[in-house]
Design goal:
287 residues; alpha/beta; Rossmann fold; 2 domains; eight-stranded mixed sheet; 11 helices; 48% helix; 15% strand; binds guanosine-5'-diphosphate; binds magnesium ion
């Protein structure tokens, strides 16, 4: 058989099939290792029980078979946690904002308006630099949304601006509350961002709020819905409502974007923390 003929025989489909076969072999290999190294299997089972994706943990720990590490359970656990630590990412807080518009987006009921209240208070009252802060409400859909922000505005002495007022006084940071992604909400938001870009020199930062109580599929769906926006970081909400952080961790491993803040309850402004991997991993390993 000439070389030319051989090349012709290998179609794209063949290559794909080969790749799949190799992937299967890798999987089988990992499974085989697990059968033969009980301690590794035990640690894999422990993390899978906690909700991590089995393929991911199996592959990670199978790689340690044959090494001296396979005999020490504590080390195996530490190894997985270290790998998780390396895969998660957090963004350090920008404590000196100027001319920045932070837009909080996310599904309805996820805690966006609460975040706008908490973050505004933080930037005005709790950081070393007291920022000049304002709100804009861009949620014209939810009944009561305007009232919610108006209440924060009064309680915190932070002005609630109409959109055109963005062209008047200047602020260090303006927090924008938004509607979910339904209907034409995102198109409207993009128009609004175009307006900011054309008529002001504010820098825009988009923060996507995600609830720690959401399932993997919901998280992926929400992320898809907002993916066309240039998301700077995630904020995790409702950390107080669940002890099972596996879905959010599996999601964060897949979608490599940093977390900036964590919301741990309903109290405004107290229940907000700067994101930390240690906090997330400790919570994940609790009980
Ligand atoms: N338990 C808990 N509740 C929260 C948290 N953040 C917001 N909420 C509550 O969730 C509900 C919806 O919050 P809201 O900020 O209006 O959500 P939005 O629709 O995304 O603006 C309210 O009852 C909030 O008090 C949180 O971190 N933990
Ligand atoms: Mg709201």
């Amino acid at each position: 058989m000439s070389k030319k003929k051989e090349e012709k025989l290998l179609t794209v489909e063949d290559v794909r099939a080969l790749r799949e076969e190799i992937a299967l072999m890798h999987g089988a290999l990992a499974k085989d290792v697990l059968e033969h190294v009980p301690l590794i299997k035990k640690v894999v089972d422990r993390f899978v029980e906690k909700g991590l994706e089995s393929v991911w943990v199996e592959k990670l720990l199978a790689g340690l078979a044959g090494s001296s590490l396979e005999e020490d359970e504590e080390i195996l656990v530490a190894y997985v946690l270290e790998e998780l630590d390396a895969l998660l990412s957090v963004i350090s807080e920008d404590k000196d904002l100027s001319k920045t518009i932070r837009i909080v987006v996310g599904a309805t009921g996820i805690g966006k308006s609460s975040l706008v209240g908490k973050l505004s208070a933080r930037y005005k009252y709790f950081l070393k630099k007291s920022h000049s802060v304002a709100f804009v409400n861009f949620d014209q859909h939810k009944v009561g949304a305007e009232e919610q922000l108006a209440n924060y505005s009064e309680a915190m002495q932070i002005p609630l601006l109409a959109i055109l007022e963005l062209l008047e006084d200047e602020y260090d940071v303006i927090f924008v509350d938004t509607a979910g992604s339904g209907g034409d909400a995102l198109d409207e938001l993009e128009k609004f961002m175009g307006f900011i870009g054309n008529y002001t020199d504010y820098k825009i930062e988009i923060l996507l709020a995600l609830s720690a109580t959401s399932k993997m599929r919901d998280l992926e769906k929400i992320y898809q819905a907002f993916a066309k926006l240039d998301i700077k970081s995630f904020i995790l909400t409702k950390l107080d409502e669940t002890t099972d952080l596996s879905d959010i961790i599996n999601f964060l491993i897949k979608v490599k974007k940093p977390i900036s803040y964590i919301s741990t309850g309903q109290k405004i402004p107290e229940d907000l923390e700067v994101a930390s991997k240690e906090y997330i991993l400790n919570r994940f390993m609790e009980d």
